[in-house]
Amino acid sequence: MKGCVWRHPSRWGGLLLWLLLLPLCCTAETGPGVGNGELSGLSAEDRINLLCLRSAYPQIRAVEAGSDGIWLRLEGERRVLYASAAELAAHPYDDAALLDREQRLARRLDTARMDVSLRASMHLPYLPDPERAATPLGYSPGRWRSYAFLKALYGADAATVRRGLGGTSLQGRKVRMSGAAARALAAVDGRLREAVRQRPELKPWLVSAGGFLWRPIAGEQRLSPHSFGIAIDLSPQRAPYWRWAKVERHPLQQSYDSEIVRAFEAEGFIWGGKWHEYDLMHFEYRPEIMAKARLLRQLEMAGGDGRDGGTAASPHDLSGVVPAGGSNG
């Protein structure tokens, strides 16, 4: 399949089609490498990860297998490494474990290294609301990021990121975010408008404290996702950050209003309240993580986790599973 340039699906429901096609898709120009230049030898979870990345980001034009690993080719012929050949060999995924909820939730990552490969950034399972898992040390899905990918998508410096910003608003307050994130936030605002009308007590929780701001994460040297215009903070006086609160687990991690969280998740945002190093005010546009979360939930609903007595679903055959979801911005 020469060039392997896929068209961007408009809804998460298109994920099923891409999952079925993904093993066949690879640039014909690549030489022998991972799977002899093909992607069909990858694990089901790696194929799901690549599927969700491709569905979430139309800037990704192709997935390429080479002797050094798996690469994403973006607009302008930029390339970002998904995973090196060494990482794929050293940390293979077990397809059976993909469907075992307990094994997925037992995963941990090294808290000393937060700038990781794209593959590692999708390793921890994010559970969409109303589920809220325990958050032991090493479990902060989405807090590990591939900065090479973020810089390729949004810009490697403040000036470049600023050129891609768009204006939107949340509950009447103006917010600047990167284009796709701004459009997704506008959709969130639409979802919450009726909720606030019916439940006015939600409004004090929806006060924007800012979107784009080029800065490091508080207490760290890594750039904040605010630097790329993909994060928004809401009502910090009510929803604290773990360094301020100084408690290992905050009650709001369980009691924060689910209607707010679900509105953001439906449009591709993850919530920092689901991290060990919780950031209760923080919502971050990571549509690939939400796409994977929905897909795995659909597998479980099909009986794939073996707990409900249903016919076990296979991650290689998802013909009966169509992920639900919102706009990808």
Automatic annotation (TrEMBL):
Region (Disordered), start-end ranges: 305-329
Recorded GO MF terms: peptidase activity
Domain Peptidase M15C, chain residue ranges per copy: 219-285
Pfam family of the protein (one): Peptidase_M15_4
InterPro entries documented for this protein: Peptidase_M15C (IPR039561), Zn_M74/Hedgehog-like (IPR009045)
Name of the protein in its database record: Peptidase M15C domain-containing protein
Organism: Desulfovibrio piger ATCC 29098
Record lineage: Bacteria, Pseudomonadati, Thermodesulfobacteriota, Desulfovibrionia, Desulfovibrionales
